[in-house]
Amino acid sequence: MRVLLADRVPEALGLLAGDGAAIPVAGGTDLLVHWPVRIDAHDRTYVDLSRLEDLKPLRWSDRELVLGGLTTYWDVIQDERIGREFPLLVRAARQVGAIQIQARGTWAGNIVNASPAADGVPVLMAYDAVVVLESGRGREEVPLDHFYTGYKEMRRRADQLVVAIRIPRRPYSYQVFEKVGSRRAQAIAKVGLAVTRSDAGWRVVAASMAPTIRRCPMLERLLEQRVQVAHPGDLVPAITQDVSPIDDVRSTAEYRRRVMARVLYDDLRETCGWP
Amino acid sequence: MTLSIGFTLNGKAVSMEADPAERLLDTLRYRLGLTGTKEGCGEGECGACTVYLDGLPVNSCLVPTYQVRGARVETIEALDPVQLGPFLEQGATQCGACTPGVVMTALWISAHPELLETHTVRELMAGNLCRCTGYDGIVDAVATTIGEVGEGGRGKGEA
Questions:
Q1: What is the reported pLDDT for A166?
Q2: Pairwise CB contact (< 8 Å): B45 & A97
Q3: Any idea which architecture B3-76 has in CATH?
Q4: Is B81-145 CATH 1.25.40.10?
Q5: Mutate which of A99, A179, A184, A188 to disrupt the B interface (most B C-beta within 10 Å)?
Q6: Edge-to-edge, what's the strand order for the sheet holding B3-9?
Q7: Which of A1, A50, A234, A238 could be a cystine partner for B21, CB 3.0 to 4.6 Å?
Q8: pTM, rounded to two decimals
Q9: What mean pLDDT, rounded, does chain A reach?
Q10: Would you put residue B108 in left (φ > 0), alpha (ψ -120 to 50) or beta?
Q11: For residue A58, pLDDT beyond 90
Q12: Mean pLDDT lowest for which of A55-64, A88-97, A109-118, B85-94?
C-alpha cells in the first residue's frame, strides 16, 4: 500500500493528477472495513486527505450552507443552526452507525462511496445539494441528482476531489427522512426515503430502491398535481416507474416496494389530505 | 513504504515507523502491547476497539495508524480503575469482550453530560454491541456516573 500525503488542497490535486488511479482517503470508515483480508485494496495507491484543514469547516452565507470536503457527520450533528434549518441532515447523520463512525465519516465520502443504501446522500439530494469538484484543470459543479450514472458510477474523474457540498437555503414547508432497517441503530437501510417541499417543489428521494440513490419523478409529479391517493397501493404504479429494487441479503424487491408505498402514504396523508 | 509518525498516546509522546496499511488497533495491540483494546468485528460495527482520537470515540479497526500523526490517542489503559465503580455496582459486564469499548464510550458520555440534552444514553451507546445483551446494566451504569439513576430507560429497547 502506498499513501501519498498532502497538507494543502493543490498538493492533493497534484498527487491525484500525477498518479491517475490513486484513491482519496478521508476518515477510512468505508475503506478499512475488513481491511486485513482485503488484499487487493492493499496494492493500490491512496492520497491522504486527513490533513487538508481547508476542507474541514462548514460555512454559511445568505444563500447557502456549504459543507467542506472533510465535514463529518458529527460536525453536522453538533451544529444547532443546521438542526433548525436543515433538520434532515442531522436526522440522517444520527442514523449513520453511531458516534464512532459519525466522528470519522464524511459527507463527501458518503457521496463518492456511491452506495445505493447511503444515509447522507438522500437528504442532501432532497435539499438540492450541488457537488463541487476540483482538479488541476479547474472547478466543476454537478447537481447531486445528476451525479450518479449507474451502480457505483459517477461524474467524478480520478483527478477530481469533492471539495465542497453546496446546499441552497430555502424555507421548507415539509421535510421527512425515513430509514427502514433491521433495527434502529447500526443498520443499513432496506428502504430509505427523504421527502421535502419548498417553493422549488416536491422532492422525493429513494435509497436502497435502485442501483443509485435517485429522485422519483413520477411521485414528485403526483404530489405536484395533488393527485388523490386513497390507499398505499395507489402509489405503487408511480413507485414501479421510479425505482427498480432488487432481492438481496437485506430484503426483497417486493417488500421494499410495499414498505416504500406504506411509509410514503403514512408520512404524507395528513399534509396531502389523503384519507 | 513506511511513514515516520509521532503522536501522543495516553499522555506520552510516541514515535514510530508505520506501514500505511497498518490499523491503529493492530499498532496498539501488537506493537505497543496495549491489549486492552479488543477486536470484535473488524468492520466498524461492534465498538470493541473503541479508543479516543482527539477526544472523540472512534473504531480503531477503521483508523489507519499513519492518520494519527500529531494527534492525541487514549485507550482503556489510561483509565483510572475507580471510574469502573458504577460498572461493578450495576454488574455491567458479562463475558467482558465488549467491556473495554463500552467503558470508553460510557465515560465519554459521562464527561459530556450536555449530550443528553439531545441524545439518549442508548443512542450514544449504539455503537457498542454486547453479544451477552447486557445492555440494561450498561445503561444504568452510565446513568449512575452522570447522577441520573434510571435515566437509561430500562426496557425501552431503543438500541
A1: 98
A2: yes
A3: Roll (3.10)
A4: no
A5: A99
A6: B12-18, B3-9, B72-74, B50-53, B56-59
A7: A1
A8: 0.95
A9: 96
A10: alpha
A11: yes
A12: B85-94
Which three cell numbers mark A198? 419548498
The DSSP-derived string for B116-142 is GGT--HHHHTTT---TT--HHHHHHHH
DSSP letter assigned to residue B64: B
Sort out which chain A residues have CB atoms less than 8 A from B159's CB and list them: 184-185
- CB–CB of B127 and A186 under 8 A? yes
Mutation for A interface: B27, B59, B108, B122, most A CBs within 10 A: B59
Q: How far is CA A237 from CA A195, A209, A222, in A?
A: 18, 14, 11
Residues 31-50 of A with CB under 8 A from B: 32-36, 42, 46, 48, 50
Taking a C-beta distance cutoff of 8 angstroms, is the pair A239, A257 a contact?
A: yes
Go through the domains of chain A in sequence order and give each one's CATH number: 172-272 (3.30.390.50)
Instruction: List pLDDT tens digits, range A195-227.
Output: 999 999 999 999 999 999 999 999 999 999 999
Domain locations in chain B as residue ranges: 3-76, 81-145
